[in-house]
Amino acid sequence: MVKHMSLNDETMTHILIVDDDTRIRNLLRKYLLDNNYRVTTAENAADAEQKMLLFDFDLLVLDVMMPGLTGLEFTKKLRKGENTVPILLLTAKSDVEHRIEGFGAGADDYLPKPFDPKELLLRMQSILRRSVTEEAVIEPPEEVQFGEFVFRHARGELLRNDTRVTLTTREIEVLRCLTNEPGRIVSRIELADGEDISERAIDVQVNRLRRKIEADPRDPIYLQTVRGSGYVLRTD
Fold it and tell me: What is the pTM of this model?
């Protein structure tokens, strides 16, 4: 079972959803809460500004077509005020000119409606990952321990009670990706590491790895699936 954190946990990534469509706000709020994000919603730019006085947000999911200040205008206003919070724009307009206009306003990414919530989540994760990388280079831990296992990151070596476990090259890369930041959810796209590998192939690799580290691969303790998002290595 995936362990859900308290919705008031201030260590959680905090997302502000700004959309005048109540149905979309509620749908996205539920989906992101289910994926362990802290979520606040606003129905327009003015409401969002008030919420931003109360909280520090890690990312804004912002609808372009809103009454009052539009999403593009709000983005320009935030950037003019030197607010660097990452922004993902949502819009029913998908042509290239509107995407360029969104990026020109200072948005970090642009997602046309209708969209699959899974794609929204992956785009958010990509933005947040870039944001963290820009702030500081995160050095992976030298060793990561989970249960009887120790994974030595640089050497790509997995030990079980000091006995080496044989891994394929791809299994080593999957473990490296999962242990860069232990406990972080990693998407299948990240696990593919830029290679032309299908999601099904990633799932097969993960299942093979589970057979080497789990007492019961069908009920994993360490390498867990996060529905709709990817995988996470539980080290606690």
Answer: 0.55
